[in-house]
Amino acid sequence: MATPKKVGRLMAFTAKPGKGGDLAAVMLQVAEGLRGVSGCELYVISRDRENPDTVRVAEAWTDEASADAALAAAVKSGGDVSIEGVLGMLAKPPERIDVTTLGGVGL
Known about the structure:
- The chain is α+β, with helices and mostly antiparallel strands.
- It has one domain (7-100): Alpha-Beta Plaits (2-Layer Sandwich), CATH 3.30.70.
- It has helices at residues 20-33, 64-77, 83-88, and strands spanning 7-14, 40-47, 54-61, 95-100.
- Strand 2 (40-47) and strand 3 (54-61) form a beta hairpin.
- The longest helix has 14 residues, at 20-33.
């Protein structure tokens, strides 16, 4: 059996004008909810310096199944943060780039 490849996702979320701080706060809550989640190696929230309404997320997961399971759990949890709530804050759909994580600091 082949070893599953580590996966990464580079996300960009563009908030409605003037709402980047609110979106960043919500995404930080999402990150807190992922602490200790199996397979999550990195989930870093950043705000774009040139466009503060853009929030970027760098993710690293042990495998695709872990990343998908965490998203499914977030959708089902119904906690303080919902997928619909995040999407409602956006000016446009999120941008996602899938990458194969090779290594580095923090992994």
